[in-house]
Amino acid sequence: MKFSDEFIEKLSEAERIVFFTGAGISAESGISTFRGKDGIWNKLKPEELASFDAFLRNPELVWEWYQYRRKIVNEAQPNPGHLAIAEFEKYYKDVSVVTQNVDNLHRRAGSSNVYELHGNIERNYCINCRTFYNKEDLQFSGKIPVCKSCGGLIRPDVVWFGEFLPEDIFNDGESKAIHSDICFVVGTSAIVYPAANIPILAKRSGSFLVEVNIEETELTNFADYSLFGPSGKILPQILEEVKTLRKA
Ligand code: BV8
Fold first, then answer.
1. CA nearest neighbour of 20 among 81, 80, 98
2. What is the pLDDT of residues 221-244, one digit of tens each?
3. Which member of 112, 139, 144, 240 has the greatest number of CB atoms within 10 A?
């Protein structure tokens, strides 16, 4: 793939890199996106499942949905896009992944600085006493798991619609974006806020905004550079370019 001279110059000079990622980066690992043609929101309404009210109304249904997604996530493998991002750490001083994804694939790919804005599907907590439970601690045989200490309902540790993002993680993600030299925006429709503010903040703070997506998005006109194609193909090609420009 031929890259623009400006992008090559940025890759040569940069020190701090942020990858802001969404569901699209995991599509090639076999995990459905939310809003694409086969997106999960096409079949279900987000507010029907990804909200606290939905959970209180029908905890079993919400649990079943997350168990279904956990199974897919557990069977999934990080794809060449996740792996390329992890390998960037060999060539740059500071590489951060600020992700909207809850699938844990960036960590499994080996990325060291991962900021999970919307939580992690492998973690759960009691809505009463906030005791945390990993997926191994829970048996879900159709009946919703309850807390061993207080009997409260246990929920997935993900951020639902209408819920605040984890403040410290969001602030850290913002700070990484502000201080970045290049901000890659990979596989996101960029319509969910406040997460979608991160790339905007990066660009406003002087970062070079590079979009990697299979199609145009809300951010395309705002980005400095757009690369259209599957992130599992494009990111390894950018990494190959970096290897010729910089020493590990
Ligand atoms: C908040 C849960 C403050 C975890 C998710 C009314 C009341 C309250 C808030 C709001 C409101 N109205 C609007 C809001 C704000 C709301 C929001 O932004 N809504 C949107 C839909 C308009 N945000 C919130 O509610 C947030 N909290 O505002 O709190 C507050 C509090 C109280 C009261 C008022 C305000 C919380 C948002 C978090 C919601 N949680 N998921 C889970 O179960 O997963 S959202 C869900 O969307 C996921 O987290 C996902 O990560 C996120 C973003 O989606 P994307 O990742 O971008 O995925 P998508 O499918 O959309 O796009 C995929 C892209 O990949 C596409 O562009 C596609 O082209 C591309 N692609 C596909 N294949 C590839 C590819 N690209 C490259 N390669 C490929 N191979």
1. 98
2. 999 999 999 999 999 999 999 999
3. 144
Our answer to whether residue 118 is catalytic in this structure is yes
The full set of domains in the chain, from first to last, is: 1-31+78-118+165-248 (3.40.50.1220), 35-75+123-158 (3.30.1600.10)
Distances 217 to 14, 19, 89, 169 between C-alpha atoms, Å: 25, 17, 27, 25
**How far is Cα 5 from Cα 183, in angstroms, rounded to an integer?**
17
- CA of 28, closest atom in ligand 1: 80
Instruction: List residues bridging with 96 in a β-sheet.
Output: 18
CA of 91 to the centre of ligand 1 (A): 31
* pLDDT at position 247: 79
165 Cα to the center of ligand 1, angstroms: 12
CA of 99 to the centre of ligand 1 (A): 11
Residue 219 is predicted with a pLDDT of 95
Claim: this prediction has a pTM higher than 0.90? yes
Mean pLDDT of 87-97: 97
* Residue 24 · residue 214 · CB < 8 Å: yes
Q: What average pLDDT does range 129-149 have in this prediction?
A: 87
pLDDT-derived band at 135, boundaries 50, 70, 90 = confident
